[in-house]
Design a protein that fits this description.
Chain lengths: 378, 350
């Protein structure tokens, strides 16, 4: 984490900066304010627009869930906020204000000061993100040593305390264990202990429970909710599992092909989703809380390539309602517009039409499931 | 269940129309230490005394957490690994210890779908050669030639037959899984063992593959054994569900029974741990209410030293002395509903 790579400040990122027109200070007092974030990767095959204009805000003590399929730009967004595209050929533009401080134009040294201290991250696969050669205690105390003027003894004591906080039994002895001596759930707890060791104000969790079994996942989700209450951090949770975001998130951002498809509160997204992609996601998952329907309703086709994003609305080749928009979906990129208080969607369908279609879809899904269930019970 | 198999066709069929009957299936992996003097220092009890049968045309789902022996069971069913003990009867023949040569004709009838569509397709072979491999290996001559048959298969699983000459890297994850399924279907098998067929796929694609598996079953009269850790997927695909914990079969029931009236405490905990796609209720302060659920503490113990008697007793909230001393037998508590527990849940009050 503390390897000095001697990066030049800015570089590729400065070149992209003039594109941004809005350079004013953040209007809100939010912990995190991301505006028009774009992360593009030039490759031999063309420009990969991994993230293409993402804006959101996140308050202290709140949780934002970012959902989307693989390749929708979720992880690239999180790495962008962590400043981890430094030193790659990624072109990053837009604004990221963390507690009033702009991060994209900030120096690499300044971003490194914040990373691990004010912003921390939990990675998906705890086995490959822990170093097999160092003890768990050493890895937890590393960031604490760098960001605080303390000795090794105090840092180790702190690591023991953190392990205790995340519910690892016998932290005094386990602190000297190596990652391979921990089980999957314990490794993820150790990762969480590591990320919380400096009491970060913003915590980014990238698929924190995907590699875990369902009973352990439930433990980790509970732990994250408890720790958030205790530490009052703002949390971004990135996942493809709508069940996990429903459990934790206050707000949800649905991403598709690097863009925002829909953004609103959890209730907005689950109870009155406005974007056909969100309808598709909700319809395609098998649900344990409803009667079982005989068939799932998949989204046809596959996610688009990020080099050749379809013209107009990126979702139109897979959308059943693209024809309802007078051809707009095929030619015009839909802007993100309000469809309710604090609820935005990037779709050409009118708000009334969105409500009507979702109402019909939901009623159809429920009635099919009910009749299938009745047939089965009979 | 120890009928000597002298003449394969003569084994008396079980009462039901079972395509596959598994009894007392066990796999122990020895753990060896030492470079010159190898000695056995332990035994990983991956699968211990598992008994079930699969009826023609049905789908049996096997669920459990990692390390519970689901995959080992699947590999024994397809004879990719040798069972330590027990018996596997497929279509009236004991195949438990058939040698490779004798097994070969049976390989046409039992096929496997693998979990990872990226590592289970050879990147240097074209789709045509991957899907046509079964014909080649089994020296099967098809009516219209291998190419036509392969293209038919590609169409069957919803791929473009024109893509015959493409390589796996040109396809997305969902399409690759379809290629794997096409290969599985090439020889018209009777039984397909699918090990986590959709867990590597995105949710929208997962639904496509789940529907495809259902369609193929209706169309071709297939029998499936589907292994998954995702309980909501299993509820969707399986007629009957077997729940495994640390190498033991702890519950076996029809889908409706298992999800409505789970009897084993482990099944209850598994079902209640599934996160639901429904926002948790808000508290007065604007936070989220905690869901009401059974919370298991700790992790699955190591199969190297499984807890004695009932293997779940270390995490079970109902555990009593008898659970530590006496292994619970698999009993039929209701018609078709078998449970291995001393204190099952959801039993009608006596």
């Amino acid at each position: 984490m503390a390897v000095w790579r001697g990066r030049t400040k800015g570089g590729a990122r400065d070149a992209a900066a003039p594109e941004v027109t809005d350079t004013s200070a953040p209007a809100t007092s939010a912990m995190l304010d991301v505006r028009d974030l774009k992360i593009h990767f030039p490759t031999d095959d063309g420009l990969v627009k991994a993230v293409d204009g993402i804006s959101f805000t996140l308050d202290r003590g709140k949780t934002l869930g970012i959902v989307g399929e693989s390749g929708s730009g979720k992880s690239v967004t999180s790495l962008g906020i962590m400043g981890l595209h430094h030193g790659t050929n990624a072109k990053v533009s837009g604004k990221i204000w963390l507690d009033g401080e702009e991060l994209i134009a900030a120096s690499a040294a300044r971003v490194r000061e914040l990373r691990g201290d004010k912003v921390a991250m939990i990675f998906q696969d705890p086995l490959s993100s822990l170093h097999p050669y160092y003890t768990v205690g050493y890895q937890i105390s590393e960031a604490y040593l760098i960001h605080n003027k303390v000795g090794k003894k105090a840092a180790k004591q702190h690591a023991i305390e953190m392990l205790n906080r995340v519910g690892i039994p016998n932290p005094q002895t386990r602190v000297d264990d190596y990652p391979h001596q921990f089980s999957g759930g314990m490794r993820q707890r150790a990762m969480i202990a590591m990320s919380l060791s400096c009491n970060p104000e913003l915590l980014i969790a990238d698929e924190p429970t995907t590699a875990l079994d369902v009973t352990v996942q439930a433990q980790i989700l509970d732990l994250m909710a408890d720790l958030q209450q205790e530490f009052g951090s703002a949390v971004i949770i990135i996942t493809h599992d709508l069940g996990v975001v429903a459990e934790l998130a206050d707000d949800i951002l649905v991403m598709y092909a690097g863009r925002m498809a829909e953004y609103g509160t959890s209730e907005d997204i689950f109870d009155r989703p406005a974007h056909p992609y969100a309808w598709g996601l909700l319809g395609s998952m098998p649900r344990m809380d409803r009667a079982r329907s005989e068939r799932l309703i998949p989204i046809p086709g596959t996610p688009p390539s990020l080099i050749n994003v379809p013209s107009g609305c990126p979702f139109h080749p897979r959308c059943a309602y693209a024809a309802n928009t007078n051809g707009k979906s095929f030619n015009e990129v839909p802007p993100l517009r309000a469809v309710g208080p604090g609820h935005q969607a990037a779709c050409h369908l009118s708000t009334d039409e969105q409500r009507r279609i979702w109402g019909e879809l939901l009623a159809a899904q429920l009635s099919v499931a009910d009749s299938d269930q009745q047939r089965e019970d009979a | 269940m120890t009928t000597p198999v002298t003449e394969p066709a003569e084994v008396p069929a079980p009462a039901s129309d079972a395509l596959l009957t598994v009894s007392g299936l066990t796999k122990h992996f020895p753990v060896n230490r030492g470079i010159i003097i190898r000695r056995r220092v332990g035994l990983v009890r991956s699968v211990d005394d598992v008994t079930f049968d699969v009826t023609r045309g049905e789908t049996l789902g096997i669920v459990g957490e990692s390390g519970c022996g689901k995959t080992t069971t699947a590999r024994m069913l397809t004879r990719l690994i040798e069972p330590t003990a027990g018996q596997i009867i497929f279509d009236g023949r004991d195949i438990t210890h058939l040698r490779a040569g004798a097994m070969r004709p049976l390989r046409r009838e039992v096929q496997m779908i693998f979990q990872d569509p990226y590592s289970s397709l050879n990147p240097r072979h074209t789709v045509g050669s991957i899907v046509g491999a079964p014909f080649r290996l089994q020296k099967v001559k098809t009516e219209k030639g291998t190419k036509a048959s392969v293209q038919e298969l590609l169409e069957l699983v919803g791929l473009n037959p024109e893509h015959y000459n493409r390589y796996p890297h040109e396809f997305s994850g969902g399409q690759r899984q379809r290629i794997g399924i096409a290969r599985t279907l090439a020889l018209r098998p009777k039984l397909i063992v699918a090990d986590e067929p959709v867990s590597a796929l995105d949710v929208s694609i997962q639904a496509q593959v789940v529907n495809l598996l259902a369609d193929l079953q209706t169309e071709l009269g297939l029998t499936y054994v589907i292994i998954a850790h995702d309980l909501s997927v299993i509820r969707h695909v399986a007629n009957r569900v077997a729940v495994m914990y640390l190498g033991n079969l702890v519950e076996l029931a029809s889908r409706t029974d298992l999800y409505k009236r789970p009897r084993h405490p482990y099944t209850v905990a598994l079902l209640s741990a599934v996160p639901l796609p429904e926002p948790a209720k808000r508290t007065a302060e604007g936070g989220r209410e905690r869901r009401d659920r059974v919370r298991l503490v700790g992790d699955v113990p190591s199969p190297l030293n499984p807890p004695p008697a009932c293997r779940f007793h270390t995490r079970c909230w109902k555990a009593q002395e008898v659970c530590r001393t006496e292994p619970p037998p698999l009993r039929e508590l209701a018609p078709g509903h078998q449970v291995a527990c001393h204190f099952p849940e959801n039993t009608p009050a006596a």
